[in-house]
Design brief:
Number of strands of chain A: 18
Largest sheet of chain B: 7 strands, mixed
Number of strands of chain B: 22
Radius of gyration of chain B: 24 Å
Strand content of chain A: 35-45%
Helix content of chain B: 10-25%
Strand content of chain B: 35-45%
Strand order of the largest sheet of chain A: 3-2-1-4-5-6
Largest interface: A-B, 80 and 82 residues
Structural class of chain A: alpha+beta
Shape of chain A: globular
Distance between the termini of chain A: 63 Å
Helix content of chain A: 10-25%
Number of helices of chain A: 11
Distance between the termini of chain B: 62 Å
Radius of gyration of chain A: 24 Å
Order of helices and strands of chain A: HEEEHHHEEEHEHHEEEHEEEHEHEEHEE
Oligomer: heterodimer
Structural class of chain B: alpha+beta
């Protein structure tokens, strides 16, 4: 048994009378290196640990719950957190739907999500990767004027969840990333491009690919113009498509639904998307960097089909939102670290791949716009009303070919409309950090605002 | 109150941080307590309390910064972190250095009523009051969420130049979010109250006004039509439009982007970069505002810095590290999210000085355009200057009159171009709170301006 779980069980022994307690403990080690002009600009190494406590009491009128957390695992911090959680509980409204998760018998997937070589790889090798990444970008094209950041980072994180209702869960995950931001200049203007490679350990990273990506994205944007406003088909690249899926995932949260904050509410069984659109949330698929054996309440993660052939099939639930909706948890509690309480959310979204590669999609679309980056997603997308308007950069598609680069434009529609207007789903799945994988996605009827 | 860590310990930790030959070392010790309460559909769903305590230590050697942080505030824990941060200094050095700190400058909190002195029952009363007021605005209000949060951030910062300062930052925030449901679907309304103050800012009247504003905004938008697509004049209501300057030039005037030549404003000090109506200030001393700081997270007192004066670029914003490279003083803009983060150049309260136009006149003199009553954030690429910001409450202007409500969308432009298009600034100045994200770190900032007009900007709607 992991020592974190043993510690969580020890804390549970302090439960008093008929109260229920849930303990979430986490611990992690992080390394971050930024290279600049062949040297280390920043090197940061750190370890952190913390506790999140929830205390619940069942009364006649329903349960009350109180929460507290601390960024430390020392005895005093843990005692303070327990005391605060108990005090906070007294002020919560009694609610018949409030409850902690009960073990539901679903067996956790067997996943190996930690690569121990993250910890054993010498620091010098990690530094060398950041320095090499910067050099490859600078040498990648004579028009690269600057490398704004060239970063290597990795982490190993572990967590334990235990409750007086019998939940016992531990999980561990490692990750390693290189990312780089390049600025290209053609003597007239500057353009930027971003490259990334992700894995569970440094040995899985492809530094050359990240560098090439940043160089080609920055250089091919040179000479970008602001086109006239138009309505057309937009082809989102895998990264921007992943962002779209993550937004859709937010509205598939059972919590948003029971709170009356999702445009999908009351639409189960309806055709909400193109028949080409089958969306899964599957944290048991180890290709997702966000894969996990257990959810944020310590229940086994499972594969959930959200939208199948365009038909809305399900929402994801944690314990409380499931009870409100009259159903059971889908093992989809997410929590934002020690300070966050569990809530329902998608963790590992992916579309079932289509049959076309990107070039074939361009050929079929004929004329449109290829979207390579999004800005203002948090300010221009309203997941409740569905209004969608974001800044983009990309390239025009003419006669099935990528043509001139474009910038300083927005693309707009509504999320509801965009799902129905999906024309092609690519076979070029890219596994990315975050809660969604992505692939090329063609959507018609997009309003482009330009000059 | 007793110091988080004793002076002699801090001196020994700094000495150890420099034992391998670094040129500068800093210890930042932080003890932050937070509490939050959330009301959803009249249910008090959750009260949460948290405490985070620890120290971040950095060592600068040439162009390299080493950083480590620890939650262990014992001398042993701090020395271990100092050694980890010092590992970037590879050449050895002269052993443990003797560091002498100057006398502690201890800045007082502005809070009249500290969060810890407020009964939890009193907080809940306010949440329910906001819910009552919001629902009384109309039957179409289908969902109300109210959140109250406060934080007390005590920190001490000491460095090898002898700087030794402590601050006690109390921040209080109250948000009302409403959903209205009508035939055409759901619409949202949102209002924040926030200040670097205590509970005294949350009067029953202030809370009711926020609740009313959020509810009316959602109800009004039920009749909203799609926003236009393309270039139109834009009138920004007082307060909210400060985000325009935050994105159009604020980030591009941060010295870290400048020194890396990753900003369109590099090398442009002294030049005209904006309309002569633009005088832009970043002001850490704006008392009680959301981005207020008595002292920044590097121990430098907050200050009022003029960035653009009558359209001419006067200066950038600086933290310790970037100022040191240029042989000048920091402008008090070195900030960090927590002890677990390295400081960098950040804005505080960024605002446009008032002009002398009349707000109503500006609208009356706009034949066709968009009136933006509230903005919801934005994003910029500092290297190209392209930026967006989102409107969350907006109306069409037709024949000098504010008419139909518009659905949410982003506006897009290029910073240096849009700054030239400011063609009227009124005198009804106000400020808005926001959260600024950069390089993975979030800090509280304020934005401000009076009602103003842009002669044209690209509206990212769907209506032709």
């Amino acid at each position: 048994m992991s020592d974190l779980l043993a510690e969580a069980e020890r804390i549970l022994e302090s439960a008093r009378g008929s109260e229920e307690i849930e303990i979430y403990l986490s611990r992690g080690v992080d390394t971050e290196v930024r290279a600049f002009q062949g040297e280390i600009e920043q090197l940061s190494t750190a370890s952190s640990a913390g506790i999140g406590v929830r205390v619940l009491h069942d009364n006649e009128g329903g349960a009350q719950v109180g929460t507290a957390w601390a960024g430390s695992l020392d005895a005093e911090a843990i005692d303070d957190a327990l005391r605060e959680a108990r005090d906070n509980m007294r002020f919560a409204t009694e609610d018949e739907f409030v409850a902690f998760a009960r073990p539901d018998g679903v067996a956790p997937a067997r996943l190996q999500l930690t690569d121990p070589s993250v910890s054993t790889t010498p620091l010098d090798e990690k530094i060398a990767m950041a320095v090499e990444l910067e050099r490859l970008v600078r040498d990648g094209d004579s028009r690269i004027r600057q490398v704004e950041s060239a970063d290597y980072s990795d982490y190993v994180a572990e967590a334990a969840i235990a409750s007086t209702l019998g939940v016992r869960a531990t999980y561990e995950r490692s990750g390693a990333y290189v990312s780089v931001e390049a600025i290209a200049n053609d003597g007239k203007d500057d353009q930027t491009g971003w490259g990334l490679s992700a894995g569970r350990a440094p040995r899985e990273l492809d530094v050359q690919k990240a560098a090439n990506d940043a160089v080609s994205r920055a250089t091919r944007m040179l000479g970008a113009v602001k086109p006239a406003s138009m309505k057309c088909t937009a082809v989102f690249d895998p990264r921007t498509a992943a962002t779209l899926l993550a937004i859709i995932g937010g509205s598939l949260s059972g919590e948003a639904v029971v709170r009356g904050r999702s445009f999908f509410a009351n639409r189960i069984g309806e055709e909400v998307a193109s028949p080409l659109f089958t969306l899964l949330d599957d944290p048991t698929d180890p290709r997702h960097f966000s894969a996990s054996t257990f959810d944020g309440e310590g229940l086994a993660c499972r594969r959930n089909v959200m939208i199948e052939d365009g038909q809305l099939k399900a929402f994801v639930y944690d314990t409380v939102s499931a009870r409100r909706a009259g159903t059971s948890s889908t093992g989809s509690a997410v929590r934002g670290g020690i300070a966050g309480s569990p809530s329902a959310g998608c963790r590992a979204l992916a579309l079932l791949p289509g049959e076309l590669d990107q070039a074939e999609i361009f050929a079929r679309v004929g004329n449109g716009i290829y979207v390579e980056s999004l800005t203002g997603v948090h300010s221009g997308v309203n997941p409740i009303s569905g209004d969608f308007s974001v800044g983009i950069t990309g390239l025009m598609i003419r006669d099935g070919q990528l043509c001139e680069p474009v910038r300083e434009i927005t693309v707009a529609s509504t999320l509801q409309r965009m799902l129905l207007d999906v024309m092609y789903v690519g076979n070029d799945v890219e596994w990315l950090p975050g809660s969604a994988a992505g692939q090329s996605l063609a959507i018609s009827g997009i309003a482009v605002s330009g000059s | 109150m007793s110091p988080l860590v004793e002076q002699d310990v801090l001196q020994r930790v700094l000495g150890t941080a420099l034992e391998r030959g670094g040129e500068f070392a800093e210890v930042f010790v932080e003890d932050r307590t937070t509490s939050s309460a959330m009301l959803d559909q009249r249910r008090v769903e959750e009260l949460s309390s948290g405490r985070d305590r620890g120290a971040g230590i950095r060592v600068v050697v040439g162009e390299t910064t080493g950083f480590a942080h620890t939650a262990d505030l014992s001398e042993r824990g701090l020395l271990a972190a100092a050694q980890a941060a010092a590992a970037v200094a590879r050449e050895g050095g002269g052993g443990v250095r003797e560091i002498k700190l100057s006398d502690l400058i201890d800045y007082p909190s502005l809070a009249e009523t500290a969060p810890g002195d407020v009964a939890k029952a009193k907080k809940i009363e306010l949440l329910l009051h906001a819910d009552d007021v919001a629902r009384s605005e109309g039957n179409s209000i289908s969902q109300v969420q109210v959140a109250l949060g406060d934080s007390t951030r005590n920190f001490v910062v000491a460095n090898s130049d002898g700087v030794f300062a402590a601050d006690h930052q109390v921040r209080t925030r109250f948000n009302v979010s409403c959903v209205a449901t009508g035939d055409g679907g759901m619409q949202t309304g949102y209002r924040p109250i926030a200040g670097t103050r205590g509970f005294e800012i949350l009067t029953a009247d202030a809370v009711a006004e926020a609740a009313r504003g959020a509810a009316r905004q959602a109800i009004t938008k039920l009749d909203a039509r799609p926003a236009p697509s393309g270039d139109l004049p834009v009138v920004l209501a007082g307060g909210t439009g400060g985000i325009l300057f935050h994105e159009a030039c604020g980030h591009g005037l941060e010295a870290d982007a400048i020194l890396k030549q990753a900003s369109v404003y590099t090398g442009r000090v002294g030049q005209l970069v904006a309309s002569p109506l633009v005088t832009l200030v970043d002001d850490g001393t704006a008392t009680g505002e959301w981005g207020y700081l008595a002292v920044d997270d590097e121990g430098r007192p907050g200050s009022r810095n003029v960035l653009i004066e009558n359209g001419a670029l006067t200066d950038y914003m600086w933290d310790y590290l970037r100022a040191r490279k240029e042989g000048r003083a920091s402008s008090g803009n070195g900030r960090r999210q927590s002890y677990q983060h390295l400081p960098m150049v950040r804005m505080t309260n960024t605002y446009l000085l008032e002009g002398d136009s009349d707000a109503d006149e500006i609208v009356a003199q706009t034949p066709l355009g968009v009136y933006v009553a509230q903005l919801g954030g934005g994003q910029v690429n500092t290297a190209t200057g392209d930026f967006v910001f989102g409107m969350t409450a907006a109306f069409l202007i037709e024949n000098g009159q504010i008419t139909a409500p518009l659905r949410d969308c982003n506006l897009i432009g290029n910073g240096p171009d849009v700054l030239q298009r400011v063609d009227a600034v009124a005198s009804d100045f106000s400020m808005m709170p926001g959260t600024c994200g950069k390089d993975g770190q979030s800090v509280p900032v304020g934005c401000g301006q009076a009602t103003m007009r842009l002669s044209g900007m690209t509206i990212g709607g769907t209506a032709s």
